[in-house]
Write a structure and sequence with these properties.
Strand 1 and strand 2 form a beta hairpin. The protein has two domains: 26 residues; 122 residues, Winged helix-like DNA-binding domain superfamily/Winged helix DNA-binding domain (Arc Repressor Mutant, subunit A, Orthogonal Bundle), CATH 1.10.10.10. 70% of the residues lie in helices and 10% in strands. Helix 4 crosses helix 5. The chain has 149 residues and is mainly alpha-helical. A two-stranded antiparallel ribbon has the order 1-2. It starts with a helix and ends with a helix. It is globular and about 55 Å long.
């Protein structure tokens, strides 16, 4: 039984790797920003959850606030994000997109639109929904196991 899972997981990994290579050919402008993987992931999270705190990010990615602060400082120096003080708690800062962050967000939005128009729209919507549901189930299982460890 595990052999079947191993075969499917290998195929899944191959498909993800191929998708990454193919989709990156459409994303050359993103490479021009020279963000690390961790910076990219945090930027995507901030873009979808503006006005969050370093504590929110640390909790989401299960990393230390110090690690978040290091990444945030680099993004702030490059004007991707701006820290704004929380009026109700002066010791806390909200993280919002800066000038470069807005440009990056627009680029990501345009890339997504291109991928949808050219590729995703060629796939039956039910298949995309099923794939999304399956990935969410896998994520739930991983989270469940982490909590039980």
């Amino acid at each position: 039984m595990l052999a079947e899972y191993r075969k499917i997981v290998n195929e899944l990994n191959d498909a993800f790797n191929e998708f990454y290579v193919l989709s990156n050919k459409n994303a050359k402008k993103i490479d021009e920003y020279h963000l690390t993987f961790q910076q990219e992931v945090m930027m995507l999270y901030i873009m979808r959850n503006e006005r969050i705190t370093a504590n929110d990010i640390a909790a989401k990615f299960e990393i230390t606030k110090s690690a978040v602060s290091q990444v945030i400082s680099k993004l702030e120096a490059r004007h991707f994000i701006v820290r704004k003080s929380n009026p109700s708690n002066r010791r806390e800062f909200y993280i919002i997109l800066g000038e470069e962050g807005h440009k990056y967000a627009e680029l990501i939005k345009n890339l997504d639109e291109t991928l949808i128009r050219k590729y995703y729209s060629q796939i039956d919507i039910a298949d995309l929904q099923h794939m999304t549901q399956t990935m969410k189930k896998i994520n739930e299982v991983i989270i469940e196991h982490k909590e039980n460890e």
